[in-house]
Amino acid sequence: MPAPANSSTVVDRSERAVGDTPPATASFARALALVGPDITLCALCALALAVAGSLLGAHYVLRLSTMLLPGLVAPGIIAIHFARDAGAIIRDDVGARVSFVASVRLALRDWLPLVVVAVVFDNLENYTGLVRPTTIDASLYRLDLALFGVEPTVWVRRFYHPLLTDWMATSYGIFLVTPMFLAITLSLRGRREDFREMALAVMLQMWLAFFIFICLPAGPPRYFAPLRDGVFTEHLPSLLGFNDKLQATWDTYSPLLVRASFPSLHCAYGMLTLICAWRFGSGVFPARRRLFFFLVLPLQLSLFAATIYLRHHWIPDCVAGMLLAVVVCTLAAWLRRRWPAARSAPVD
């Protein structure tokens, strides 16, 4: 009876397959394995965007604000690795400095695609209006009415309450905190293959959203003139003023918001967080693999509701964002298994 296939068996099969192929093909496969799917696909997407910008006449003004988040995480992880073995590294114990240098190299390499995609997001405004100069807001509004008989962002007004507004604003504003916490935890616990799969899903999600933003620009309901100048003149009640402060930050920070609502990246990140929390939650609580998922579930459900309550998204935006997350998580897991000579760690 044949032995069950485990991760090492898969690696051996992959390596034999590369060895049995013609030299040119084998060399290409080894190059892909060395670079990895994240950097390879990031480079291809960046090239496609650059070519499209050149053909369509994009004008560039470099902005670097969003990159600060992933850009500062990698140095922080490096600092933690140093602090763990500072004495051994300083004394130059056997293998300590070599191990630390290796950890630095891997941390910088693994976070690089996320830094690149953050820089692209900051500068995506350069591309808006090049493919389609007008937004699809009116179509999304009509679709909402056709589906529900009422605009959901208007219908939800009956639930307005100062404390609920503050909670929704908080849930909406920290949408990146939970997935970032999970990614950092996976990285620090040495679950590199799990981290790279999650990072690949994030990167693919952002790139696909970028191209959709360019082809189908859409703004939030609160910017849609018939609503903005009508029922939305009613101010959202707030006890602590969280929503006013956060909304002012969004509006000042990113002019791209008027063209980057479809699909909803907030809903995409919320769904991606739930999928990764279910699969990789043991990276946070090793003894209780599903605990992290159930802890973050209420926060992500609140995030989904906040996109409507706070007038940030149409229902099609939300559905498209959730579907996008499912697609990229599925694709990232598939690429992890099938990328040439990829040494995949077992997954939950």
How is the topology of this model organized?
Elements lengths: L6 H14 L2 H34 L11 H17 L1 H6 L4 H27 L14 H12 L3 H4 L6 H12 L3 H12 L3 H24 L9 H4 L13 H12 L11 H16 L10 H19 L5 H24 L10
Helix pairs in contact: 2-5, 2-10, 3-5, 5-10, 8-14, 9-10, 9-13, 10-13, 10-15, 13-14, 13-15
Question: What does it look like?
Answer:
With 348 residues, the protein is an all-alpha fold. The chain has a domain at 133-338. Helices cover 68% and strands 0% of the residues. The chain is built from 15 helices and no strands. The protein has helices at 7-20, 23-56, 68-84, 86-91, 96-122, 137-148, 152-155, 162-173, 177-188, 192-215, 225-228, 242-253, 265-280, 291-309, 315-338. Helix 9 (177-188) packs antiparallel against helix 10 and helix 13 packs antiparallel against helix 14 (291-309).
Q: Concise description?
A:
The protein has 348 residues and is mainly α. The chain has helices spanning 7-20, 23-56, 68-84, 86-91, 96-122, 137-148, 152-155, 162-173, 177-188, 192-215, 225-228, 242-253, 265-280, 291-309, 315-338. It has a domain at 133-338.
Number of strands: 0
Low-pLDDT windows of residues: 1-19, 342-347
Helical fraction equals 55-70%
Structural class: mainly alpha
What does the radius of gyration come to?
Answer: 22 Å
> What is the overall pLDDT average?
83
Shape: globular
The number of helices is 15
Strand content: under 5%
Distance between the termini: 26 Å
Give the SSE order as H and E letters: HHHHHHHHHHHHHHH
Biggest sheet character: none
